[in-house]
Each structure stands twice: as structure tokens, then as C-alpha cells.
Amino acid sequence: MPRLGVNIDHVATLRQARGGKLPDPVYAAYLAEQAGCDSIVAHLREDRRHIQDEDLRLLRRKVGTALNMEMSIAPEILKICLRVRPDQSTLVPEKRKELTTEGGLDVEGNFKPVSKAVEKLEASGIAVSLFIDPEKKQIAAAKRSGARIIELHTGRYSAAKSSSQKEEYFKQIESAVDYAAGLGLAVNAGHGLDYSNVKKIAEIRGIEELNIGYAIICKALYVGLFAAVKEMKELIGKC
Ligand code: PXP
Known about the structure:
By secondary structure, the protein is an alpha/beta fold. The chain has one domain: Aldolase class I (TIM Barrel, Alpha-Beta Barrel). Helix content is 49%, strand content 17%. It has an eight-stranded parallel β-barrel, surrounded by eight helices. α2 packs across α11 and α10 packs across α11. It is globular, with a radius of gyration of 17 Å. 44% of the residues are buried. The mean pLDDT is 97. The structure holds pyridoxine-5'-phosphate. The site of pyridoxine-5'-phosphate has 19 residues, from β8 and α10. Pyridoxine-5'-phosphate binds next to β8 and α10.
């Protein structure tokens, strides 16, 4: 059964809508941990649209499972990461105008800066994961960069409109997991996963962790965060 990482960015999105203190992403992280998640994911974006520097500092102090900082490789953000020292850093591409992380990191096309960032972070004891599309060339480049972990982008699978498309994207993920595991990489997955589509992905042998945010935070509005995380954890636990 894969581990569950809960992404709390959208708790901060709601707080930023009014610029006040509530809802508090640090308290949300506490509730998610109480409900059984295995790590907390927070993305400090360059535009600071949700998580703020102070959130990250507090999360580092309060998170008792593992803190996974999602981030770009911008020098300013790298510096912050080296200061905060999360347990893991997940490198993602970032575009100002995107609604969410729309594609994987092009490790092959940006090999030099990405591998430099991997080297810096690993040298300071922070495990690095690269968020990439389920493609052989990106997986091979991730391996060459020195990263030990990859997170496969499940967005295309999650957003597929027809069942034949869904099956095609699912197969891509399945063979990407096989290929990456064969290279000795730890394989995680995430993006767009929800209560109805998570099971198929969680059942792929070799996936070690799923990182889920939006669906859990949306469900939490109706049932509370504790119940929403617990339900997702139980769903994954049945796989
Ligand atoms: N993993 C990564 C690397 C992400 O960028 C995101 C989105 O912030 C997620 C997982 C979670 O995606 P979602 O919010 O769609 O569950």
C-alpha cells in the first residue's frame, strides 16, 4: 500500500482570499497527520499565491511525519529550502499564469540547472524528488541527474475524458513505474487524484507514495479535514 502525502496548499489559498490568519495550514497539517497521513506537502511558489515563507518555517517546526517542500529551482527558493531543511524537496516546473502545476519538469531539456539543484540539495541531506511526466526520456534524465526519487504526473490520466484515453494514460504510468523501478528510482505519483480514480493508481506495484491535495481539501469542506484524509487513507489502504 502506498503512503499518503497530503498537500495543504489550498488551505492557504482560502486564507489568502481574505489576507487574514484563517484557515491555518499548520493546523490543517496537524489534523491530516492525526487522521493518518504519512507526510505533508507544501508548495512555496515564487509568486507566493498560497503558502508563505512563515508557513513553511512553522511547518518545519510542527510537522511530525515528514515535510515535503514542493518548489521550483529558482535561486531564491533554493536558498529558502536549504535554510528550512524539509525532509524532502520535490522539484516542479512553475509558470506564473498556470492554475496548477500543469506538466512535469523537463529534466532532459534543463539537465544542467536541474542536476545542479539536485546536487546542492542532496549534499545538504535533503532527499530530492523530480516531478515528471511518465516518459522514458524524462525518467532516464532524472536518474542521470542524481535524484533518488521521482513523482509521476498523473494529471493526464486524471483528466482523461474517455475510457480509452484513460486506459492509454494508465498504461503509460504503469510502464513508467516499471522502467523507473528497474533503474533503482523510488517512484511516487500525484496530481488530479481523487476518491474515484485513486484506486487504480494505488494498485500499481512499485508506487511508494501518492501526493494528493485538491480532492481532499474540497471534500473537507463537507465532512471535515480529519474525515476526508481518513477516507483517502482507507481507500489507499485497501489496495
Ligand atoms: N504532486 C505535485 C508535484 C503537485 O504539484 C501537486 C499539485 O500541487 C500535487 C501532487 C497534488 O495535486 P492535486 O492538488 O491535484 O491533488
